[in-house]
Specification:
Radius of gyration: 23 Å
CATH superfamily of the largest domain: Methylthiotransferase, N-terminal domain
Structural class: alpha/beta
Shape: globular
CATH architecture of the largest domain: 3-Layer(aba) Sandwich
CATH topology of the largest domain: Rossmann fold
Largest sheet: 6 strands, parallel
CATH class of the largest domain: Alpha Beta
Bound molecules: S-adenosyl-L-homocysteine, iron/sulfur cluster, FE3-S4 cluster
Number of strands: 21
Helix content: 25-40%
Distance between the termini: 33 Å
Length: 477
Amino acid sequence: MRYKPTDSVLDKNIDEKKQGDVFFKEQLQKNSQGKQFYIESYGCQMNFSDSEIVASILGEMGFSPTRNMEDSDLILINTCSIREKAEDTVRKRLRVFDKIKERKPGTLVGVLGCMAERLKAKLLEQERLVDLVVGPDAYRSLPQLVSDAWGGDKGVNVLLSREETYADINPVRLDSNGVTAFISIMRGCNNMCSFCIVPFTRGRERSREPFSIVAEATDLFNRGYREVTLLGQNVDSFLWKNPETNETVNFAQLLAMTADVHPDLRVRFSTSHPKDITDEVLHTMAQYENICNYIHLPVQSGNSRVLELMNRTYDREWYMERVNKIYEIIPDCAISSDMIAGFCSETEEEHHDTLTIMEFAQYSMSYMFFYSERPGTLAAKKYEDDIPLEVKKRRLNEIIRLQNQISFKQNQKDIGKTFKVLIEGDSKKSDQDFKGRNSQNKMIIFPKIANLNVGDYCYVTINDANSATLKGEIVNE
Ligand code: SAH
Ligand code: SF4
Ligand code: F3S
């Protein structure tokens, strides 16, 4: 299906621009000329994608990005609250920024992202040298907050929004390889997984206007990019309703619209929720060669009682059925997962169910964690965090060991196969080798040959594999 922007959508953008305070903007641009910002990002891909929106907003102000924090006038840290360790890392970095600020007193330090949202003004009390605290839906207020901070006023804006999608902002690609890019298609999360802080830090789920997503993908393709990853905490619940016609666009339709940009533009997406992934999405994937055969489908636990406590709203059988369906409709699909070891009251047998579901699903890779209680979440309120740390760690190690074995076995099976690979750059170890990924998202290293460049597709036959990477040689197809 096709969707065209309605006049009202375009008019709205123009009106919003007109409404901007022209004088304030000009003044700010003058003050910011030649100023540099430095940004560090932690957490999920959405946070990295948000940093590119922040870079665009600051760029409009006249700031330019620098990789050297010592040179910068504004140091920003885009933070994550998902586990206690993530917050500890941020606090350590703030100590480093404090030292720079002591040496260069005019430097501003700003905390963005989920930790800003979770701790709000408390961060200013706890972290003496922080000047700005800005939540994920408030980045448009950065110019005002920076300007206030120059005037000596510390500022906080952590208002969450039901509408903000930053759809009209053209992200400035930071640390880009020029080939692969992320596009945020929605924000927030309406699920209430009991362990998870995200609904509190990111607010309600809202889907971005599809035309702006397709326009961003088209622009990236025209600039030489060859892969986009559509991002959301739960992409399967993407749903946009045209306010004029009530016509809707769901995730399967959005996937098709993005894949139609060009056959040479690969489309990936993350994250899928087992309760919401539809057969329509799977059939759309099967239909388009350029939609990659890879699904990140976090299971969290293989045990139905634990899944219920986690409020994941599916059980072991439901998850297994979804996995069977994926392999039935897309036989060469790779599936990856997230697992949490040692959730409240998890028994040894229940932990064992996680190991057996991993065997069943044959994950290509997984992100694996032990449970970390987050203040304010349902689990923190309702359940005791009663699994001793050494037990959590031992269970996690068992999960990691098994995943390594499964990944190794899976990768060994790829030896002798030929894959279409998008070249992303030089391999880390040698500039004589390229690195790139196949449709299944597996990293492949192979010797360079003449006339092939970053951003080109080539065919690679696999001749070696460990649990993390495949190695091969380019062949003619
Ligand atoms: N939206 C994604 C997950 C985003 S958070 C989804 O629904 O799957 C990324 C991962 O962090 C989660 O999948 C989960 O495995 C892990 N995680 C979230 N909260 C956690 C906690 N309190 N302790 C340990 N791991 C957690
Ligand atoms: Fe967190 Fe669950 Fe939402 Fe994922 S789906 S972000 S785990 S609440
Ligand atoms: Fe972390 Fe926030 Fe992402 S808590 S995982 S940065 S949504």
